[in-house]
Amino acid sequence: MRDREGREESGARPELVTEGVPVWLRGVVEREPADPTGTNPVLNRTAMKQVVSAAMRPRQASVLVLFGGAPEADPAAPGGLPADADVLLTQRAATLRQHRGQVAFPGGGVEPGDHGPIDTALREAWEETGLDPAGVDPLAVLPKIFVPPSRFDVTPVLAYWRTPGEVRVVSETEAARVARVRIADLIDPANRFVVRHPLGYMSPAFEADGMLVWGFTAGVLAGLLAVSGWEREWDPHDVRDLQAALAAVGMTL
Protein backbone atom coordinates (compact mmCIF):
# COMPACT_ATOMS: atom_id res chain seq x y z
CA MET A 1 0.00 0.00 0.00
CA ARG A 2 1.19 3.53 -0.77
CA ASP A 3 0.84 6.87 0.99
CA ARG A 4 -0.26 10.13 -0.65
CA GLU A 5 3.25 10.60 -2.07
CA GLY A 6 3.13 7.26 -3.86
CA ARG A 7 5.64 5.54 -1.57
CA GLU A 8 5.32 2.21 0.11
CA GLU A 9 3.96 2.97 3.56
CA SER A 10 6.55 0.64 5.05
CA GLY A 11 9.29 2.96 3.77
CA ALA A 12 10.98 0.05 2.02
CA ARG A 13 13.33 0.80 -0.84
CA PRO A 14 11.71 -0.25 -4.16
CA GLU A 15 13.61 -3.11 -5.77
CA LEU A 16 14.17 -4.27 -9.31
CA VAL A 17 12.02 -7.06 -10.67
CA THR A 18 14.21 -9.81 -12.12
CA GLU A 19 11.69 -12.56 -12.87
CA GLY A 20 8.91 -12.60 -15.42
CA VAL A 21 10.44 -9.87 -17.58
CA PRO A 22 8.71 -9.89 -21.00
CA VAL A 23 10.97 -11.48 -23.59
CA TRP A 24 10.58 -8.51 -25.94
CA LEU A 25 12.01 -6.16 -23.28
CA ARG A 26 15.13 -8.19 -22.50
CA GLY A 27 17.28 -6.37 -25.04
CA VAL A 28 16.83 -3.00 -23.34
CA VAL A 29 16.99 -4.50 -19.86
CA GLU A 30 20.17 -6.51 -20.34
CA ARG A 31 22.19 -4.04 -22.47
CA GLU A 32 23.20 -0.45 -21.85
CA PRO A 33 21.97 2.15 -24.37
CA ALA A 34 24.26 2.45 -27.40
CA ASP A 35 25.04 4.88 -30.23
CA PRO A 36 26.03 2.84 -33.31
CA THR A 37 25.38 5.74 -35.73
CA GLY A 38 27.45 8.33 -33.85
CA THR A 39 24.50 10.74 -33.77
CA ASN A 40 23.61 10.57 -30.07
CA PRO A 41 25.88 12.78 -27.93
CA VAL A 42 23.30 12.68 -25.11
CA LEU A 43 24.58 9.29 -23.93
CA ASN A 44 28.10 10.64 -23.35
CA ARG A 45 27.18 13.59 -21.17
CA THR A 46 28.48 12.97 -17.68
CA ALA A 47 28.88 15.35 -14.78
CA MET A 48 32.58 14.54 -14.50
CA LYS A 49 33.18 15.92 -18.00
CA GLN A 50 30.98 18.97 -17.63
CA VAL A 51 31.48 20.15 -14.04
CA VAL A 52 34.79 21.66 -12.98
CA SER A 53 34.06 22.96 -9.47
CA ALA A 54 32.16 21.94 -6.34
CA ALA A 55 30.00 25.06 -6.73
CA MET A 56 28.67 23.59 -9.96
CA ARG A 57 27.91 20.17 -8.48
CA PRO A 58 24.85 18.74 -10.25
CA ARG A 59 21.51 18.07 -8.63
CA GLN A 60 20.27 14.50 -8.63
CA ALA A 61 17.12 13.43 -10.48
CA SER A 62 15.39 10.35 -11.88
CA VAL A 63 13.01 9.72 -14.75
CA LEU A 64 10.71 6.76 -15.40
CA VAL A 65 11.12 5.14 -18.81
CA LEU A 66 7.90 3.14 -18.69
CA PHE A 67 7.10 0.63 -21.42
CA GLY A 68 3.63 -0.83 -21.78
CA GLY A 69 2.32 -3.61 -23.99
CA ALA A 70 1.30 -7.24 -24.00
CA PRO A 71 3.63 -9.47 -21.97
CA GLU A 72 3.72 -11.98 -24.83
CA ALA A 73 6.21 -11.37 -27.64
CA ASP A 74 5.00 -11.22 -31.23
CA PRO A 75 6.98 -13.93 -33.05
CA ALA A 76 6.39 -12.19 -36.39
CA ALA A 77 7.83 -8.83 -35.28
CA PRO A 78 11.51 -7.83 -34.94
CA GLY A 79 12.61 -8.41 -31.37
CA GLY A 80 9.16 -9.79 -30.58
CA LEU A 81 7.74 -6.26 -30.21
CA PRO A 82 3.97 -6.53 -29.60
CA ALA A 83 1.73 -4.32 -31.71
CA ASP A 84 0.45 -2.43 -28.66
CA ALA A 85 3.87 -1.60 -27.18
CA ASP A 86 4.19 2.01 -26.05
CA VAL A 87 6.14 4.36 -23.80
CA LEU A 88 4.75 6.96 -21.38
CA LEU A 89 5.72 10.56 -22.16
CA THR A 90 4.67 14.00 -20.99
CA GLN A 91 4.83 17.41 -22.61
CA ARG A 92 6.05 19.99 -20.16
CA ALA A 93 4.00 23.13 -19.58
CA ALA A 94 4.94 26.14 -21.68
CA THR A 95 5.12 28.26 -18.52
CA LEU A 96 7.98 26.33 -16.89
CA ARG A 97 11.32 28.09 -16.51
CA GLN A 98 13.42 25.20 -17.86
CA HIS A 99 12.72 22.81 -20.75
CA ARG A 100 9.32 24.43 -21.28
CA GLY A 101 7.12 22.73 -23.84
CA GLN A 102 9.53 19.83 -24.31
CA VAL A 103 8.51 16.19 -24.41
CA ALA A 104 9.89 14.29 -21.44
CA PHE A 105 9.71 11.16 -19.37
CA PRO A 106 7.88 11.58 -16.06
CA GLY A 107 10.48 12.46 -13.47
CA GLY A 108 12.22 15.12 -11.43
CA GLY A 109 14.60 15.94 -8.64
CA VAL A 110 15.38 13.79 -5.63
CA GLU A 111 13.54 14.86 -2.48
CA PRO A 112 14.19 14.10 1.19
CA GLY A 113 12.63 10.77 2.05
CA ASP A 114 13.13 9.23 -1.38
CA HIS A 115 14.52 5.71 -1.15
CA GLY A 116 16.83 5.74 -4.14
CA PRO A 117 16.36 6.55 -7.84
CA ILE A 118 13.54 4.04 -8.39
CA ASP A 119 11.48 5.63 -5.62
CA THR A 120 12.16 9.11 -7.00
CA ALA A 121 11.05 8.09 -10.50
CA LEU A 122 7.87 6.40 -9.26
CA ARG A 123 6.98 9.29 -6.94
CA GLU A 124 7.47 11.87 -9.67
CA ALA A 125 5.45 9.82 -12.16
CA TRP A 126 2.63 9.57 -9.64
CA GLU A 127 2.71 13.31 -8.99
CA GLU A 128 2.81 14.22 -12.69
CA THR A 129 0.48 11.68 -14.28
CA GLY A 130 -1.49 9.98 -11.50
CA LEU A 131 0.29 6.72 -12.34
CA ASP A 132 -0.35 3.92 -9.84
CA PRO A 133 3.17 2.69 -8.94
CA ALA A 134 1.75 -0.63 -7.73
CA GLY A 135 1.25 -1.67 -11.34
CA VAL A 136 4.83 -0.93 -12.38
CA ASP A 137 7.75 -3.37 -12.42
CA PRO A 138 11.12 -1.57 -12.25
CA LEU A 139 13.53 -3.55 -14.45
CA ALA A 140 16.82 -1.66 -14.66
CA VAL A 141 18.61 1.46 -13.48
CA LEU A 142 20.58 3.00 -16.34
CA PRO A 143 23.79 5.07 -16.10
CA LYS A 144 23.36 8.72 -15.14
CA ILE A 145 23.23 11.37 -17.87
CA PHE A 146 24.13 14.99 -17.19
CA VAL A 147 21.73 17.66 -18.50
CA PRO A 148 23.73 20.90 -18.79
CA PRO A 149 20.88 23.49 -19.02
CA SER A 150 19.37 22.42 -15.68
CA ARG A 151 22.54 20.91 -14.16
CA PHE A 152 20.67 17.73 -13.27
CA ASP A 153 22.43 14.37 -13.13
CA VAL A 154 19.56 12.18 -14.28
CA THR A 155 19.14 8.46 -13.62
CA PRO A 156 16.75 6.78 -16.09
CA VAL A 157 14.76 3.96 -14.49
CA LEU A 158 13.55 1.41 -17.01
CA ALA A 159 10.23 -0.24 -16.13
CA TYR A 160 7.38 -2.37 -17.46
CA TRP A 161 3.75 -1.38 -16.98
CA ARG A 162 2.48 -4.75 -15.78
CA THR A 163 -0.97 -3.40 -14.85
CA PRO A 164 -1.72 -0.29 -16.91
CA GLY A 165 -4.13 2.23 -15.48
CA GLU A 166 -5.43 5.71 -16.14
CA VAL A 167 -2.92 8.53 -16.51
CA ARG A 168 -3.68 12.21 -16.99
CA VAL A 169 -2.36 15.72 -16.54
CA VAL A 170 -2.39 16.17 -12.77
CA SER A 171 -1.16 19.77 -12.72
CA GLU A 172 -1.39 22.07 -15.73
CA THR A 173 1.43 24.16 -14.27
CA GLU A 174 3.74 21.15 -14.72
CA ALA A 175 2.50 19.37 -17.85
CA ALA A 176 0.39 20.21 -20.87
CA ARG A 177 -0.09 16.62 -21.98
CA VAL A 178 0.41 13.00 -20.93
CA ALA A 179 0.61 10.47 -23.76
CA ARG A 180 1.25 6.80 -24.37
CA VAL A 181 3.30 6.91 -27.57
CA ARG A 182 3.41 3.80 -29.75
CA ILE A 183 6.85 2.24 -30.22
CA ALA A 184 5.80 1.42 -33.79
CA ASP A 185 5.61 5.16 -34.48
CA LEU A 186 9.01 5.83 -32.90
CA ILE A 187 10.78 3.16 -34.95
CA ASP A 188 9.12 4.17 -38.22
CA PRO A 189 12.04 5.51 -40.35
CA ALA A 190 9.75 8.29 -41.65
CA ASN A 191 9.52 9.64 -38.09
CA ARG A 192 13.25 9.59 -37.25
CA PHE A 193 15.95 12.15 -37.97
CA VAL A 194 18.56 14.36 -36.28
CA VAL A 195 17.95 17.97 -35.22
CA ARG A 196 20.49 20.78 -34.95
CA HIS A 197 19.96 23.31 -32.17
CA PRO A 198 20.58 27.02 -32.94
CA LEU A 199 23.62 26.78 -30.64
CA GLY A 200 25.06 24.07 -32.86
CA TYR A 201 24.65 20.86 -30.89
CA MET A 202 22.67 17.98 -32.34
CA SER A 203 20.24 15.41 -30.99
CA PRO A 204 18.30 12.39 -32.20
CA ALA A 205 14.67 13.26 -32.83
CA PHE A 206 11.32 11.54 -33.30
CA GLU A 207 8.09 12.94 -34.69
CA ALA A 208 5.21 11.01 -33.15
CA ASP A 209 1.68 11.60 -31.91
CA GLY A 210 1.80 15.24 -33.01
CA MET A 211 4.93 15.96 -30.95
CA LEU A 212 8.65 16.37 -31.59
CA VAL A 213 10.77 14.35 -29.16
CA TRP A 214 14.36 15.63 -28.99
CA GLY A 215 17.18 16.33 -26.53
CA PHE A 216 17.63 14.16 -23.44
CA THR A 217 14.42 12.17 -23.94
CA ALA A 218 15.14 11.37 -27.58
CA GLY A 219 18.74 10.48 -26.70
CA VAL A 220 17.63 7.92 -24.13
CA LEU A 221 15.01 6.48 -26.47
CA ALA A 222 17.45 6.26 -29.39
CA GLY A 223 20.03 4.56 -27.16
CA LEU A 224 17.50 1.98 -26.02
CA LEU A 225 16.15 1.33 -29.51
CA ALA A 226 19.68 0.66 -30.72
CA VAL A 227 19.93 -2.38 -28.43
CA SER A 228 16.26 -3.41 -28.42
CA GLY A 229 16.09 -5.66 -31.47
CA TRP A 230 13.02 -3.67 -32.61
CA GLU A 231 14.80 -0.93 -34.53
CA ARG A 232 14.29 -0.41 -38.26
CA GLU A 233 16.93 1.09 -40.53
CA TRP A 234 16.67 4.88 -40.67
CA ASP A 235 18.71 7.76 -42.14
CA PRO A 236 21.05 9.30 -39.53
CA HIS A 237 22.24 11.78 -42.20
CA ASP A 238 18.82 13.45 -42.27
CA VAL A 239 19.71 16.54 -40.20
CA ARG A 240 17.02 19.20 -39.75
CA ASP A 241 16.88 22.61 -38.12
CA LEU A 242 15.35 22.22 -34.66
CA GLN A 243 13.15 25.30 -34.85
CA ALA A 244 11.76 24.23 -38.23
CA ALA A 245 11.11 20.70 -36.97
CA LEU A 246 9.27 22.06 -33.93
CA ALA A 247 7.20 24.43 -36.07
CA ALA A 248 6.16 21.50 -38.29
CA VAL A 249 4.26 20.00 -35.34
CA GLY A 250 3.06 23.30 -33.87
CA MET A 251 5.69 23.48 -31.13
CA THR A 252 8.27 26.18 -30.36
CA LEU A 253 11.73 26.31 -28.81
From TrEMBL:
Domain Nudix hydrolase intervals: 56-207
Pfam families, alphabetized: NUDIX
Keywords per UniProt: Hydrolase, Magnesium, Manganese, Metal-binding
PANTHER family (alphabetical): MITOCHONDRIAL COENZYME A DIPHOSPHATASE NUDT8, NUDIX HYDROLASE
GO function term, MF aspect, one: coenzyme A diphosphatase activity
UniProt-listed Enzyme Commission number(s): 3.6.1.-
Enzyme class: hydrolase
Family: Belongs to the Nudix hydrolase family. PCD1 subfamily.
Lineage top rank: taxon: Bacteria
GO annotation terms (biological process): nucleoside diphosphate metabolic process
Cofactor: Mn(2+); Mg(2+)
Name of this chain's protein: Putative Nudix hydrolase NudL
